Recover the amino acids of this structure.
């Protein structure tokens, strides 16, 4: 995982891995009776590391896409989300179509489904591809980009952190599911992971993670009338 996506994947004050995905990985390792080792890798390096055997699974808020499925296999989905927009506070736009003009700049993070979506669907606006999520947000905050395409949870967070300079369009422009990535053809491991995910959900594991890490977000999503991810 890439420890750069709180509260799912991050480092605590001592530098140790922390967050929802870390708790989920810990529970998975216990269920499989395997020792857990978390490697902090750049997001766009996760699939190459999996394919070369450097890691056994990817558990890093990764969207299961048909393009990625050409290179790796995925578990059953464990979370639903969607891509949406962070835009400047004074922006009059209400949709991605209104942004697709030659005069506009749209920021995306390298290697994410936001970049994939924009590459396929944005034809006139300039795409600004950056390595870090925070850099994309800063472009919007400073008025240098007309939008940042990212997932609903993150866009909500960045809007809350920058209420004087940004606004959020949280209605998804594309619905997505996150899943655990594993090497092609490792059906035995995939079946074990799927069994774990089903049992974990039935036992209230995902509800517990939501209550531990996402209480405020759950309340905000409810106020906005947007279905919550778990």
């Amino acid at each position: 995982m890439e420890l750069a996506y709180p509260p799912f994947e991050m480092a605590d004050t001592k530098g140790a891995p922390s967050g929802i995905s870390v708790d989920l990985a810990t529970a998975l390792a216990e269920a499989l009776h395997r020792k857990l080792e978390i490697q902090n890798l750049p997001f766009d390096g996760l699939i190459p590391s999996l394919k070369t055997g450097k890691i056994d699974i990817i558990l890093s808020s990764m969207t299961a896409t048909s393009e990625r499925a050409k290179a790796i296999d995925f578990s059953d989905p464990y979370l639903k989300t969607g891509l949406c927009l962070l835009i400047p506070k004074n922006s009059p736009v209400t949709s991605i179509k209104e942004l697709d003009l030659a005069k506009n700049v749209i920021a995306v993070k390298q290697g994410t489904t936001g970049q994939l979506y924009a590459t396929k669907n944005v034809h006139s606006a300039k795409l600004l591809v950056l390595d870090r999520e925070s850099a994309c947000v800063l472009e919007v905050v400073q008025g240098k980009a007309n939008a940042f395409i990212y997932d609903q949870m993150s866009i909500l967070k960045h809007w809350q952190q920058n209420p004087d300079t940004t606004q959020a369009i949280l209605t998804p422009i594309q619905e997505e599911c996150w899943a655990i990535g594993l090497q092609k053809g490792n059906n035995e491991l995939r079946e074990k992971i799927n069994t774990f995910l089903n049992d974990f959900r039935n036992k209230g594991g995902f509800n517990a993670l939501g209550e531990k890490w996402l209480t405020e977000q759950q309340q905000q999503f409810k106020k906005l009338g947007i279905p919550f991810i778990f």
About this structure: The chain is about 35% helix and 20% strand. The first helix runs from residue 20 to 32. The longest strand covers residues 166-178. Residues 3 and 10 are 4 Å apart (CA to CA).
